[in-house]
Each structure stands twice: as structure tokens, then as C-alpha cells.
């Protein structure tokens, strides 16, 4: 008989199960995707950073496993909050607790199994899409990469099955240990204690001091070196905990003491939020820290990536130098939108080991060259070359022109001669076309085609040898590509998981809030007022860790930029990623509000 | 002439009307409650007591018929009008979970007034007055978990009273209390009633019912019988209820 009751309970709450399943499926998919990409040698060894990238990926993998663990814990709590009442009822009716615990264990494992299988399928799809998208974004060829990767499959299946078997085991124990009555009543328990003022003050001050200390340590990385990271980690973790446990509570108390408290449902909303914040201190702290970690990973990752054009263009003014461009190449050059070009005549004389240029051409159309003035901000100065500069092979002008020549000419010295002398040299006259694309990101596809043709023309396999700032650009893109990939990937995965952790934690409390909202409805609270109270409460729970996380990153970036790891424009990237992050976060917030309202807001049935 | 606080005309309620198996829970209820009355509604389980109370309390709407409370026809109120009406004109005492644990007694009592956006300056004295009526002035700053069961029910009663409602509704208000606390709450309700507040209780407990001045018996969605306590005294009335239940429920 019980075998029938169990599925019937699921049917009645299929929407809540849908949330649980989609959450689990996405988690499994993300986990698989990361495993597939990070354990796949094809991807890591192909990347120019090779071994170090692999290390970073393993590190990310461990972090992801930890948060997955936390996530499964919260999802399981949500499942239990849904089932405690039903199963408690069966026990009241005389079902043996042994039978019930076997049932709940089975239900947990079956849910885990189904979501893992679907998650793997979704994961393969995700991996295919994401790897293609990222490969195009970072211009990194993933030719031998397959989205279906057996070792990653195994890791994922084992990881999740073990987690669910443990969860099922723990759930079963809860049912054996807890009496039926307590299970039935579990949703009505609330152990609210008004915190003591002294302890609040002490914790709030301590929390703020710790946070300030941590932020300062990160800011002062130049002096503190690696100590800054250690100090920052400890103080920020502790500070965050104390701030949630006291500072935010005190802030709410200030509002509670104001006249606002007696307006509408405010007294309830504020008190409830205060209670929740203290009750959720641990998860809120974790969410805030992971939020910072995720946001930081994305910001630093894309920050590196965005440095690439600046770094490349600071190293050289012209993107490519083309010797004797074919008509195909000329057509390609025409396609580049925002550009400037110069063409020089050139003769190579192997006897004198020199490359000759005409002085009149260099004077009439002088080349430009670029040099860094301030490495910290990636500020580069663009200057116009003087003919005299070509006498010194360490001058900016000489370096620029030298770098743009074909590989065989690079072995020789540059000589500038008069038009007459140039004509007397018996050698073939080459055309050297120098092209600057002002926007390298936009011209990447065309420039790649050009350099590929050049490599063929020069008979070299290595695109780096064709020279120009585009070669530097490609090299750096490759290096930072895997870092960015990692950053974006971990960032999104973390955010998705931590937001769902928070979601499940909040939704787990919905059952016990139902009675409160029922009562508020009876004493005459408008439905719209109830809904507003819900979204204010949930907004509070979502934004506070978010705000703290954003502040963490704002200071954490100081550590990167002041130690010279991240140069220029990082805060702009920070603003953009934060924006993107908030959108994703808001979606989770909206879903939580919707589901929560559906559970707690009483409906007036009117059938006429 | 006494004014009527509640008056219903030919009240019908059909659940799942558009389904294959509609169920008619109320089949033409006509009742009225006068100003200052203490009325009980009794009946077997499933007879329609809660259904009736929910409609009277504007928590649900009837399928047909009309309800007038304090001279206002509430039958066709919108859901917002219903909510506003409840907060201004009705008081509630529930069986279980009366108070919000995160709010002090004072804040709990003030809730109905806050909902009506009463000025802060007016809330304070209104809460004081209600608290004095129930002798809980010195409990106002405590949280519910610092109060005994009986004290909690008195705080809940103060919350029901604070907006000077036209009538107080209760659905099995003593259902979750032990006999001492049940008795204390019923005494309190009688006291409130003696100060002129109308009360309508739904119960199937004869002891609770014996505190009422008039009892309506409901059976299969219809009012079957009615008795009054008059000057009989509570014990005699209690006996009469027991007898009535004996014959009525056959
Ligand atoms: N939401 C509903 N949908 C369908 N039928 C309902 C609904 N609510 C109540 N009923 C039915 O209407 C009838 C009257 O129910 P009601 O809750 O009013 O009884 P009651 O007198 O309060 O019983 P009890 O003393 O057990 O509380 C019952 O047969 C019940 O099954
Ligand atoms: Mg009932």
C-alpha cells in the first residue's frame, strides 16, 4: 500500500519536484561539463599554458566538487521538508519506521539516479555548445575535442551516486530516529531568540574590523606579499560570518525602531528577515564568499582577455606586415574596416646581409610605432618615426619595421638609402604592405586568414613567425584563453549552484511559513501585501550576500592590479561582469519568489 | 430594536461545481446574529461548519445567496475589499499558531492596525486599551515563546479586539488547549462579550458551546435546530446541549 502512497505524494507536489529535478539536472550537467573539459588532455595540453592550466583545472574541479556537495545537501533538505509531513503521517497511521526509512532512502536514490542520467545527457549537450562557443570566442581550435568523454562520465556518475546514497542513508536515519509526532510538527518549530545587544555589538564591530583588515591586506599586497592572501582569506571569512550574524541584524533593528515598522506588514517583514538572516548566517556567508569567488574568477579571467589587444598593440603599431601581397591577400585587407596602411619598396641583398628601403618613401609616409609609457595602466605612446632612427637597431622605429618583415629578411640589417642607390641594387623589388587594424577583436577573422596565407607563402608552419602585433595578439589569446575559459566557466557554475543552494534553503522554510501567511490572510492582509512582503524578504536574503560579495571582489581586484597581475581596465570588466551576474542572480531570485508565493499565499476559491 | 451584525439569505455553497462530482456543502442557510450576541454553531464533522464560517468571515464566497455584515453586503466583494473588510470589521481567534514568534506581543496585537495604515500615534493607545481589557499590560514586550499557553491566547484575543471589530469569529478556538487554558479562554471570551462585542464560535465541543447564549445546530448543510441559554445557568445549558446532540445527530 505504501508503495502506492509514495508516488501519489509526488504527484500532488510535482511542481516542487520539477524544481528539485531541474536544479539537480543542471548541477550534474555543469559538473560533467567541467570534468569533460578539464580532464580531457586534448584541451589542456593543446593550450599554450599546458601544465599550469591543468593545475588550475584540477583546483577548479575540487572547488566544484565541494560546492556540489553543499548543493546536494540543500536540495536533499528541500526534499525532506516536502516529505517529512507525509511520511510522518504514515507513521502515525501505523507504518513501521523501518519500512518508511527504506522508502525515503529509495526515493532519494531514485531521484538521484534519474537526475544524474538526465543531467549527463544535458551535460553532453551543454559541453558541445559551450566548447564551440568558447573556442570561437577565444579563437582556440578544439579540433579533436569530443563532448562525450567516458572518464568524465564515470567521475560524474560515481560522484553523484555516492552523494545520493549517503543522502538516502542519512534521510533514512532521520526517520528511524525521529518520532512521528515530531516529524508532523517539524514544520511548525521555530526557535527564535532575541539576540543579546552586547553580543550583537561585539560581533558587529569585530566583523567590520575583520573585513576592513582583510580588505586592507589585499590592498597592501605589495608589502605583505603572499601573507596578504592568507590574511585576506581568514579575516574575510570570519568577518563575513560576524557581519551576517550581527551587523545586518542591527541595521534591521534600527529600521524596526523607526515609524516605518508600524506601516502595513513591515513589522512582520522586518522581523522575519531578521530571523532568517540569523538562522541562515552560515549559508549566507558561504553564498557571499562563493559569489565573490565566482565574480572574481570571471572578472580576472575576462580581464586578462581584455588586456590582450592593448598588450598586443602596445608592443607593435601595425597588426601585420605582408611581403608581396597576393591579390587574395589584398582583397582580405580591403575587408578590414577601421585601418591604416602603408606600402614600402624593399630589396634584399644576401651579399651585404642587408634589407634596403628608400629614404624618400620613409620620409613621405613615415611609419608609426608604439611603446609602453606606463605598464601598469597599459598606456602606450604612438610616435612617428624619423629616418635617423633607423641607424640604431634598438630604436622603436627600427624594431617596428624589422618585426614586420618576412622571416628571411629578419636575419638581415635594415639599411635606408636614396632612391638612386636603391635602383642600382641588383635584386628583386619587394612590396612590404603594413596594415594596422584599429580594432583587432573585430578584424580577427580576416587577420587570421591573412596570416594563414602568409605562413603558407613563407613556407612556415608557425604563424608567430609572420610578425606584427597580431601574432602577439594570437599568442596572448591562447595563453589567456584557458584562464578566461576557466574563469567564466567556474564563475557561472558557482553562481548557478550557490543561487540554487540559497533557493532551496529558502524554499525549505516555505512549509512552516504557510501557517503564518494563512493567519495573516485571515486577519485581513491583501494578497498584494503578502506578496510584497515575500519578495522583500527574499530580496533581502539574496542581495545582502550579493552586495558583500561585490565589495569583496572590488577589493580583491586591488590585489591583482596592485601586484601587477591584472593591468588596466579591470574595473570596467568588473562592472560588466557584475551586471551579467546580477541578471543571472535575479532570475534565481524571481524563481524563488514565484515558487515561494505559490506555496504560502492562500488562494480564495471562487466558483460561481 | 436591536441591530443585526450578521444576516445571511439562502446561502448555498457547492464545492467542485464544474467537476463531475460537485458537492453541495451548504444548502440554503438563513441565520442572523444580533449586536452583542454570543452565538455557537454546532454540528457533526463534515456538516459544513467551517464552510459556513469561512463564508461569513469573507474568506470564501458563496455559490449563491447573500451575506450582510454590519449592514454591508459582502457577497460580491473583490478580494482586496474582502481583506480590508476583515482587517477593519472582523476579529479572529484560531485554534493553533496564533502569534508570530518573531514579533513581540505588542507588535502582534498591533498588526491589524498596521494593516489599515493607522497612524503610529494612534496604534500605541489602542494596543494599551486592548491589553488592559485582557489584563496583559505587563506582557507587551515579551516574545510568544516567553509566554504560557493561556497568556498566548489572551494576546491573540487582544489582537482580535484591537481594531474594535463588529464581530469576533472563532473556529474551534479551544481545540488545541488543555482544559484549564480552554476554560480560561472561554471565560475571557465571555468577558469580552459582556462588554458588548458580538462573537460567533464554531465548535463541536459541548463544553465550549455552553458558554454561548444561543446555539445553532447544522446538519447536512442546513440549520436544523436552535436553543438558547436564557437564564438556565451554564451547567443546565450544558446538559441541554448534550441532550440535543443526542437526538439531533441520529
Ligand atoms: N475545499 C473543498 N473542496 C471540496 N469539498 C470540500 C472542501 N471543503 C470542505 N469540503 C466538503 O464540504 C463538507 C463540509 O466541510 P466542512 O469543512 O465545512 O465541515 P465541518 O463541519 O467544518 O467539519 P469538521 O467538524 O470536521 O471540521 C465536507 O463534506 C467536506 O468534505
Ligand atoms: Mg471544520
Question: Can you give keywords for this protein?
Answer:
heterodimer; A: 608 residues; alpha+beta; 5-stranded mixed sheet; two-stranded antiparallel ribbon; 21 helices; 7 strands; B: alpha/beta; Rossmann fold; 6-stranded mixed sheet; 5-stranded antiparallel sheet; 11 strands; binds adenosine-5'-triphosphate
Task: Give a structural overview.
The complex is a heterodimer of chains A (608) and B (250). In chain A, a hairpin with a 4-residue loop joins strand 4 and strand 5. Chain A is 72% helix and 8% strand. Chain A is built from 21 helices and seven strands. Among the domains of chain A are: 189 residues, no CATH class; 151 residues, no CATH class. The longest helix of chain A is centred in the first third of the chain and has 43 residues. By secondary structure, chain B is α/β, with parallel strands linked by helices. Chain B has a single domain, classed as Rossmann fold (3-Layer(aba) Sandwich), CATH 3.40.50. Chain B has a six-stranded mixed β-sheet with strand order 7-8-9-4-10-11, with helices on both faces. In chain B, strands 1, 2, 3, 5 and 6 form a five-stranded antiparallel β-sheet that branches. The longest helix of chain B has 16 residues. Chain B is globular and about 50 Å long. In chain B, 46% of the residues are buried. The interface between A and B is large, with 37 and 43 residues. The structure holds adenosine-5'-triphosphate (ATP) and magnesium ion (MG). The site of magnesium ion has 2 residues of chain B, from helix 1.
